[in-house]
Amino acid sequence: MTTLRPFRCEDMFHFNNVNLDPLTETYGLLFYLQYLAHWPEYFQVAESPSGVIMGYIMGKAEGLSENWHGHVTALTVAPEYRRLGLAKQLMAILEDISEKKRCFFVDLFVRVSNSVAISMYKKLGYIIYRTVLQYYSGDPDEDAYDMRKALSRDIQKKSVIPLTHPVRPEDIE
Ligand SMILES: CC(C)(COP(=O)(O)OP(=O)(O)OC[C@H]1O[C@@H](n2cnc3c(N)ncnc32)[C@H](O)[C@@H]1OP(=O)(O)O)[C@@H](O)C(=O)NCCC(=O)NCCS
Fold first, then answer.
1. CB 108, CB 60: distance < 8 Å
2. A single GO molecular function, which one (predicted)?
3. What is the CATH number of domain 3-160?
4. Looking at the whole model, is its pTM more than 0.70?
């Protein structure tokens, strides 16, 4: 049976099988440790019965007043464990924590070319809130969709009224 549990420091020695995917954003070890120290509740892993890391989610809560929100920093599932509902379950955990923290919404950034993830997020109730130009650096740079889902505290659903114009990365709060 799959176990969903908090991420531990030593998991960083075993998550290369997940991170090798080209669509998975990978970071330096300090970045993961910073998340683990600040937002341990938002860093969850799916582990197989034999101890293999199947996928993980990493996130945080940030923003002031009505911009107080949960953010998905990374979500990834190893290719051999996809379409089993793991990402859906990991997202449900992050959304539940964000509800408990009284966040107004959850947001995330996704490459505009990542049609699988975009359709999954839409299925989970996320909308494209705005386009962030050249958010991902590379050759060439790639735009991101900032996708959002309103939580119960946002009664008027103000957080999910889409912006009509694209923004630049430096304009993101
Ligand atoms: C996107 C990703 C996280 C989905 O993980 P997953 O565990 O396979 O997703 P789930 O099984 O929970 O799928 C939930 C729903 O998303 C949709 N979905 C997921 N993968 C899909 C695919 N390949 N094609 C079509 N729909 C898909 C389906 O509607 C699915 O529900 P269903 O299986 O009941 O039809 C995974 O493909 C991945 O790790 N991709 C690489 C990294 C990435 O792109 N991360 C997101 C960056 S923001």
1. no
2. protein N-terminal-methionine acetyltransferase activity
3. 3.40.630.30
4. yes
79 phi, psi to nearest 5 deg: -50, -40
Digit-coded pLDDT (tens) for 67-118: 999 999 999 999 999 999 999 999 999 999 999 999 999 999 999 999 999 9
Q: Is the CB of 77 under 6 A from ligand 1?
A: yes
To test ligand 1's pocket by mutation, which of 83, 84, 109, 121 has the most ligand atoms within 8 angstroms of CB? 83
**pLDDT tens digit sequence for 33-72:** 999 999 999 999 999 999 999 999 999 999 999 999 999 9
- For ligand 1, atom 18, the nearest C-alpha belongs to 120
CA 53/CA 65 separation, integer angstroms: 36
Whole-number Å distance, alpha carbon 22 to ligand 1 midpoint, is 15
Integer Cα distance of 1 and 110 in angstroms: 30
From 77, 108, 145, give the residue whose CB has the most ligand 1 atoms within 8 Å, as the site to mutate. 77
